[in-house]
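FORM 7B: Structural annotation worksheet

SECTION A. Query
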Amino acid sequence: MPVTAHSLTAPSAPPTTSLDGNIRADVAVIGAGITGLSAALHAASAGANVVVLESREIGWGASGRSFGQVVPYLRHDAERVMALLGGAAGEKAIAAAALGPELLFSLVERHGITCDATRQGLLFGAHTPSAFRRLERRWRFWRERGVELALLDARGAAEAIGGGRYWGALLEPRGGTINSLAFARGLAAAAMRAGAAVYTRSRVQSLRREALQWVLTSTKGTVIADRLLLCTDAYSEGLSREIATSVVLVRGYQFVSRPLPQETWVSVLPGGQALTDTRKLMSGVRKVPGCRLQVSGGISFSGFERSQASKSVTLRVRDTFPGIGVVEWEACWSGLMAMTLDEIPRLQPIGAGAMAAYGYSGRGLALAALFGRELARWAAGAGEEKLAFPLVMPAPIRSQIAARVAARGLGVVYRADDLLAQLRFGHGPAP
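SECTION B. Predicted structure
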């Protein structure tokens, strides 16, 4: 594991061993991230014999590298989701995503998971006047459905943020933040207490369907199971052609600061909410234990994990919080996101008796907990109509090379759009 904002304070993972020998199971889960462990916990709690195979360590992938923001939305605003999926399926997907934070925080409470969970809400800052109008539409959409969000003007946004030069902001009360690595480790411990077997350092080398069962072969052992749940998302590493041909992998970077003076730290985001804004590229800032800030950095569309220059992140933090003073960075890390073409996540059959969850497109914490539960319900016999999230047909990418080239080009366009907005509106709203 790299050093991250999460690894600095997360409790140790429960002890595990590698798979050694042959095992029979009702449900085999591949991937010990939040999706797989939520699936294992829910399936084992319902009485199934569950085996989890993880190629590295618990929470090693995106679950341990996230921004830590628990969001009740999909990637797109509601109008776009319904345009993509149609009215009924769109409404179902939107409602399911909105339930995600409630499920996640209830798992934290029910199983006593220590993961720095906070639920003061989330702040979304509008970096342009048109972006503020979009936030108004979101506020109106949820108000019509009985959910009261707080729409803040420029002054209210500045007070809630402790700085910034936004045209307004939306305070979303249903969201919050967690230490996602600690949450994954806590889910693993809860799943093991419920009877699931979790094996780490047990890479699945082959999958095959044989005599109405799934056979999973690892380095030193084999699992034979009635149901297969593939929960590897961006870290599938060739296990699923369905996933490999349906996503573009995007590497997102994060930074965590060295401890700030207490008086400075408390003045930043005084209500404890995480802040993201309406810029095209990642823009998150949140407080983490130890008087530190966690800040999202840039993205890339290829290459191995490596450090990223911190200059632009430092400038953004100092621009948002002018009184913050010197900010030094403790660590930089990255994680992969699986982006579908339409940025809609998938619950998708991948063969007889097998289901995958993937394509969270940067909205993976609450959705992962929810999708894990739904995978467990499917494994127990729930039909498509009973699942909280609709089954969405895959959208294969014909050429990964062309998709990556297009994604890089789109990244350039997004950077240019954000820069133009900064030049035009960076001074903030008119007095």
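SECTION C. Observations
The CA atoms of residues 75 and 343 lie 6 Å apart. Residues 1-117+177-246+341-397 form a domain with the FAD/NAD(P)-binding domain fold (CATH 3.50.50.60).

SECTION D. Sign-off
Analyst initials: ____
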